[in-house]
Design goal:
Order of helices and strands: HHEEEHEEEEEEEHEHHHEEEEE
Number of domains: 2
Number of helices: 7
Shape: globular
Structural class: alpha+beta
Radius of gyration: 22 Å
Length: 266
């Protein structure tokens, strides 16, 4: 009888551990998380220091304030409260999600300083970095730590977990800029895809920074490929001539398909 009770207790403990351990993410769930979070914009709620190693944050939003302050003194701020930031890369690890902010430690002010946003009536425009939003001065990385295997999550749920640091709900100047674009370009940006006729800034808004760039001369034409993704997953090739996209090609598991074409916006 005593032995039977011991086995029952052991079995219950095993079941409890199994129930507490989430199932692995499916490939589709991993793709949805990465696509749903990459290239997203947010407003920093607190000072984010530049750091070579990812800044760790617990699920309750707590972090080592003393360490972050020391990093800010050593390397400077990646973003101050109120600065506009972009998630440029998302990595799913065993027990954490790592977000590269503004290109990481070596990143910083880039293309968005050049964007002009309509100021209302007439032709007056203002820089995206002006008004109530300012562009973050640098880049960093943030690791959202689960202390267990990553559970199945939706992008919206991850944004809520990051809410103590980043505000994804506030309407930014970038959104105002996107509203001024032709409907097909605007829709492509919202769907996080590149299409022919986009310029470089619009591709960055849609897909973020490419993994690498390749330049070549074909029949006297100067072309540049922006490459997103790495094998064995989905890879996107965005080809520019000058500042305009002339071709978008997507491959996955050896299968290729062409993206839809759009007339060059005037």
């Amino acid at each position: 009888m005593h032995r039977l009770a011991w086995w029952l207790v052991l079995a219950m403990a095993v079941v409890a551990v199994a129930q507490d351990k989430p199932r692995p993410l499916t490939p589709e769930e991993r793709i949805e998380l990465i696509r749903g979070l990459t290239a997203e914009y947010a407003t920093a709620k607190i000072l984010l220091p530049r750091s070579k190693k990812a800044l760790t944050v617990d699920l309750n939003g707590s972090y080592d304030k003393a360490e972050w302050q020391a990093l800010a003194r050593e390397h400077g701020p990646a973003a101050r409260a109120g600065d506009l930031v972009q998630i440029t890369k998302v990595s799913l690890e065993d027990d954490r999600i790592v977000f590269e902010i503004n290109g990481g430690f070596r990143g910083g002010r880039k293309w968005y300083e050049r964007i002009q946003v309509s100021g209302g009536m007439g032709t007056r425009t203002v820089p995206l970095a002006g008004g109530p939003y300012t562009v973050a001065p640098g880049g960093t990385s943030i690791a959202l730590v689960f202390n267990r295997r990553l559970p199945p999550l939706k992008p919206a749920e991850v944004k809520k977990l990051l809410a103590p640091l980043l505000d994804f709900e506030k309407r930014s100047a970038t959104e105002q800029y996107v509203e001024t674009l032709p409907p097909p370009i605007r829709q492509a940006i919202q769907e996080k895809r590149a299409v022919e006729g986009m310029d470089r800034d619009q591709v960055l808004l849609a897909l973020g920074r490419p993994v690498r760039k390749v330049r070549e001369t074909v029949d006297g034409r100067e072309l540049e490929d922006w490459i997103y993704g790495q094998p064995p997953g989905r890879i996107i090739f965005v080809t520019f001539e000058g500042n305009k996209v002339i071709r978008v090609k997507e491959t996955y598991a050896g299968l290729a398909s062409e993206a839809p074409s759009l007339p060059v916006p005037r």
